[in-house]
Write a structure and sequence with these properties.
Shape: globular
Strand order of the largest sheet: 2-1-6-3
Order of helices and strands: EEHEHEEHE
Number of strands: 6
Structural class: alpha+beta
Number of helices: 3
Radius of gyration: 13 Å
Number of domains: 1
């Protein structure tokens, strides 16, 4: 099985980022809501991860998770090293639109 990688759609000059299957399953924690203004139409396996959220998560060192059982409350979860490396790659390369390629 090939290792998944993130292909930067909005920055084709940036090399794809190899990621683990575990991090691939966590991309939903970082994606922007589909109804967020300014997000282009997304294809299969594509994510928009807003620059502002990347910066917030890097500055605070946490991600905010919403429980499907209680959408009114959020839980702060400390970033793992792998998640922080992903956010750093997004921030450093100014990438927001990615596609998972396997």
């Amino acid at each position: 099985m090939a290792q998944p990688r993130l292909v930067p759609i909005d920055r084709p000059d940036v090399a794809p980022l190899p990621i683990t299957s575990r991090l691939r399953s966590q991309l939903v924690y970082f994606r922007s809501a589909a109804d967020t203004p300014g997000i282009p139409p997304l294809g299969p396996n594509e994510y928009w991860i807003a620059r502002e959220e990347v910066e917030r998560a890097l500055n605070e060192g946490v991600i905010l998770l919403v429980s499907p059982l209680d959408s009114e409350h959020q839980t702060e979860v400390e970033l793992s090293e792998e998640q922080e490396a992903l956010l750093d790659w997004l921030h450093r390369n100014q990438v927001q639109h990615v596609r998972v390629s396997e």
